[in-house]
Amino acid sequence: MAVAELEVDILANSQLWRGHEGLLSRALAAAAEVEGKFGTVSLLLGDDASVAELNQQFRGKSGPTNVLSFPPAAGSAEPGFLGDIALAAETIVEQANFQGKRFEIHAAHLVVHGFLHLIGYDHENPADADVMETRERVILASLGIEDPYA
Question: Binding site membership: which residues?
């Protein structure tokens, strides 16, 4: 019997991510397990400059954002490829400090949030936001991480 797995390809371009790769990989694996979605995810552990560039190029928005998700284009993806997630270190540090959270815990929440976007979840309206936030809570709880919305 084959074991379903999630492969995470990580590219880190900021020293702020050093030592946090393991937790982020575990958070992605937990999301994949809870959602029953397996394959490969590329994770850019970026800085604000690299994520700002992606944000401008793909969303037409200036400046960095905490997390970006890029599902594969229809019909163009390799089998099993779930998509790309990019995290902006300095923005996440700033948000974590403002919210009184640890950087790595906030980053774990955001990588789960990004994964859920890859597999089709969204938060464009209140009902969809409630569903997505509930899934985030379940996944994070499986890692022993408290409710990020409490």
Answer: 113, 117, 123
